[in-house]
Amino acid sequence: MILLISTGYQAAMLNRPFERNPEGCGAFFGLLARNYFRYDWTATLGAPVMSMGQGAPAIFYANHPPSTPLLVAAVFGAFGYRGDYLSLPGDWQVRLPTMLFTIGCIALIHWLLARRAGPRAGLLAATIFACIPMTLIYGGFPDVINTQLVFFALLTVAAYERFHTLQSPGSLTLLSLAMLGAALMDWPAFYLVPVLGLHFVLSRPWRSWGWIAAFAAIATAIFAVEYAYLAIANRDWYWMAWLLKRRALSNVADTAHQFGFTDWLVHAVWGFAVARHTIPITLLAILWLVMAVVRRFGSPGDRFVGLLLAWAGLHVLVGRQGVYQHEWWWWPLTPVLVAAAALALDRILIGIQTRLPPQVANVMVGVAVVALGVWNGVRAVDELCNPPPIMPGPYNYSPKELGELIRESAPPDAAVLLAESDNSLPLWYYADRALKRHVWTPESLKSRLIDQSVDLCFEVPQPWPGRATALIIPRAYLPTLQALASDADQHYARHETDRFVVYELNQ
Question: Cα(434)–Cα(441) distance, rounded to whole angstroms?
Fold first, then answer.
């Protein structure tokens, strides 16, 4: 029943347009995915390309393993997309792979916790996982840190527990395969290696340490191959250095403002981690931690969640700037809080059942969890379906509306000029054309007409010697852009839509 309800909800949310909100950032992986059909793999080596416009040189986005855009591309290909510029795949196709892994995580955490703490704990964990805001908001969100990473991390910890009990070539192979799956998703998977290694060394006799050394060597080899692959694509063997400096050592957000420890606690921990998992679930997880420490992590469930907690904690420590910047970077903490809350609730129920019939206690907790899920679901639907406007009033427009107009105004081998500074990633996804933004004056119009570059996501420049065929001005900006409009009126044909003014530049 939980799987059916969660699948129904996630399916209903699949085909929404990507908007100017954090969830809309997933559109970027749709952009990378369609470029797999447009660039020669012998030239790109399968690395993600973020370039815009037909015939554009390959500009790589090779900061992460390419599994996420490859999975989206596989869905595109399965449903008939072959890289054309006339129409885009459905938005649901971009979200489908992540949604499937989200449903997989719900089933997997139920199975894993039920085996370690009993059927009720597993059922509680699956229910909580399905109905917290993190899952309801980001259950279909394509990114490198999402339920795909969580799914394989859960498998890796489960495989490690088997390996910890019985070291053999078979258990080492299973552990290595699970680790490979996690590593192909994104770099935080490798934080599992020191966590599992330290646990093994502290809990197993030294004569067996060679087995964990073998696992560490395999994981190191996986990392080396992935790193070298992306270094070749980036043409830079030190490409990860600036990412580590930015995400681990910097206290400067992507918006260029500095943050201190108190800011980090308020914004990242309270505003993201607690808010996306809810206060009740967080408090239950803290209660579990106290009980687990008192019990010295003596139960299988406690040990399993403890290993996940160490992994998530290391991820947060190393990626402290990332978890400040992106709320979905808290995904590794999700199975920890979910499983911990389920274990705490299960133990509370055991205590209650000494005073109340078991059926009454179970119904009470069930009603509370369902009520929390309904409340979270209503709020999640409102957040996803009512994104903040770029401006108030009748001239507000979505990235999809502007993107569709851009595609209508220019052929694939031409650029479009925009009186716009919007840097939301869905704009590039829906536009699917080379873009030259920040056209505010007659002088900037002339400059952008003759310059040899266009704007990519994240303010990355791309060489563009080709033509530009249209200038688009949102009608809401016209009162402040009279000089630009007057100059364009003197030279170019003009037509208007409800929300935009379009000038044809190719006459």
Answer: 20
Would you tell me how many other CB atoms lie within 10 Å of the CB of residue 312? 24
Say whether pLDDT at 383 is over 80.
yes
Tokens of 382: 């409102």
> 417 in helix, strand or coil?
strand
466 pLDDT above the threshold of 60: yes
Nearest 10 degrees: Cα torsion 79, 81, 87, 93 = 50
Contact 90, 169 (CB under 8 A): no
Nearest partner of 105 among 75, 144, 135, judged by Cα: 135
How is residue 258 annotated by DSSP? Answer: B
Sign of CA dihedral 402, 406, 409, 415: positive
Output the average pLDDT for the chain.
93
Q: Do β-strands 434-436 and 415-418 pair in parallel, antiparallel, or remain unpaired?
A: parallel
Short-list 29, 47, 31, CA closest to 141: 29
Cα dist. 266→253, 330, 380 in Å?
Answer: 14, 14, 21
pLDDT at residue 507 greater than cutoff 60:
no
80 torsion bin: left (phi>0), alpha (psi -120 to 50), beta (else): left
Residue type, 78: A
**Sign of the CA dihedral with 275 first, then 109, 385, and 72 last:** positive
DSSP one-letter code for 168:
-
pLDDT, one tens digit per residue, over 247-290 is: 777 787 777 788 888 999 999 999 999 999 999 999 999 999 99
Q: Which two structure tokens, joined as six digits, stand for 216?
A: 């560490």
Question: Contact 52/432 with Cβ under 8 angstroms?
Answer: yes
Indicate yes or no: pTM above 0.90.
yes
Q: Are 340 and 289 in contact (CB under 8 A)?
A: yes
